[in-house]
């Protein structure tokens, strides 16, 4: 028998496996990666927001400013509901505290309007922390009822101290005037005040959620028992989240006072708290874009419902909420996320069967 050479061995004679060529990347997929879609969208939104007041009528500019104010309040509510998993129906009360703090300081003590913002934030933080200690020992429906009670008694409380709050008549203020060097109209200046406060608020919340505190809040939301076993102090972090949530609601109330230049107890009835929670759910719980979309929903949808049927705008408003939740169970932010995913998929070439070349 002749020996089989190494080159004629079965292993060497076996055909090499086919190589699959890597798909060519399109210029769009090279520039816009999955991680950059979010920041690209943020940049576009900010640019459009900065350009909008120069093209819109004053009333439309006012509406957009109000939408951003509601977005700040929903940003705080999202901290406690979306990121911590607790239910709150009382954030309209903290909105009122911030609004009246700014109004009283501006009306009674002639405080500069910009100085009222940090004061309103501190006041609502202290009140939120004090109320959060006993309130957050409850869970579920009981917590919702207690926070609802806070929103209910806020209106008669404001009416009782009429020497300070103006009672049922409220307080009428002067709107902040733009500095001469800006060259802006009054509505444009107020708009940019609201826009600047909104951007700073979102940056602060993003920093909190990326920190140890944010990880603790998410652990509490996902499983309180497991979080406690891992060493998370439930009472401390839940109370801290409630205080921060109240703070952003108070900041929104302060900017609301600047833009409206009038506060009245009836403007902060319990319906405001319910509307804020509904707007957050529609916008998207626990998402970054949820407060923005929820603020737009809270501002524009009631007006749209009023235009459709002036006799029963609440019915139209409720039906629209049901329709949105049916079409987008994860909120409007879920639709934005799906659109971003679709755009990212369109930017990547798909390797189909049959594109491989055997050698």
Automatic annotation (TrEMBL):
The chain crosses the membrane at residues 37-54, 60-81, 88-106, 112-133, 140-158, 189-209, 240-263, 269-299, 311-328. InterPro entries: ABC_transp_permease, LivM-like. It is a multi-pass membrane protein. This is Branched-chain amino acid ABC transporter permease. Residues 1-26 are annotated as: Disordered. Residues 1-14 have a biased composition (Low complexity). The keyword Transmembrane applies.
């Amino acid at each position: 028998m002749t020996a089989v050479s190494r080159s004629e061995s079965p292993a060497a004679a076996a055909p090499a496996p086919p190589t699959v060529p890597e798909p060519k990347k399109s210029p769009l997929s090279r520039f816009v990666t999955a991680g950059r879609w979010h920041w690209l969208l943020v940049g576009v939104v900010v640019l459009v927001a900065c350009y909008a007041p120069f093209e819109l009528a004053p009333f439309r500019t006012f509406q957009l400013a109000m939408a951003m104010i509601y977005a700040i309040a929903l940003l705080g509510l999202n901290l406690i509901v979306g990121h911590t998993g607790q239910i709150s129906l009382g954030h309209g009360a903290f909105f009122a505290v911030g609004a009246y703090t700014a109004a009283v300081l501006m009306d009674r003590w002639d405080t500069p309007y910009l100085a009222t913002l940090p004061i309103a934030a501190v006041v609502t933080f202290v009140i939120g922390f004090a109320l959060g200690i006993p309130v957050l020992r409850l869970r579920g429906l009981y917590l919702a009822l207690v926070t609802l009670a806070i929103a209910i008694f806020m209106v008669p409380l404001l009416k009782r101290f009429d020497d300070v709050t103006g009672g049922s008549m409220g307080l009428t203020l002067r709107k902040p005037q733009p500095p001469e060097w800006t060259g802006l109209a009054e509505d444009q200046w107020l708009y940019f005040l609201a826009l600047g406060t909104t951007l700073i608020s979102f940056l602060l919340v993003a920093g909190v959620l990326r920190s140890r505190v944010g990880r603790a809040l998410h652990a509490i939301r996902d499983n309180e028992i497991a979080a406690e076993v891992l060493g998370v102090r439930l009472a401390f972090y839940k109370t801290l989240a409630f205080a921060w949530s109240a703070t952003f609601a108070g900041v929104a109330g302060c900017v609301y006072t600047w833009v409206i230049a009038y506060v009245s107890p009836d403007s902060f009835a319990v319906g405001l708290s319910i509307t804020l929670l509904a707007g957050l759910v529609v916008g998207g719980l626990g998402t970054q874009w949820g407060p923005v979309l929820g603020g737009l929903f809270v501002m524009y949808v009631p007006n749209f419902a009023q235009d459709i049927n002036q006799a029963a705008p609440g019915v139209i408003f409720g039906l629209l909420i049901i329709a949105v939740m049916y079409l987008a169970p994860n909120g409007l932010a879920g639709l934005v996320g799906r659109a971003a995913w679709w755009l990212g998929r369109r930017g990547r070439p798909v390797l189909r069967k049959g594109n491989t070349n055997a050698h």
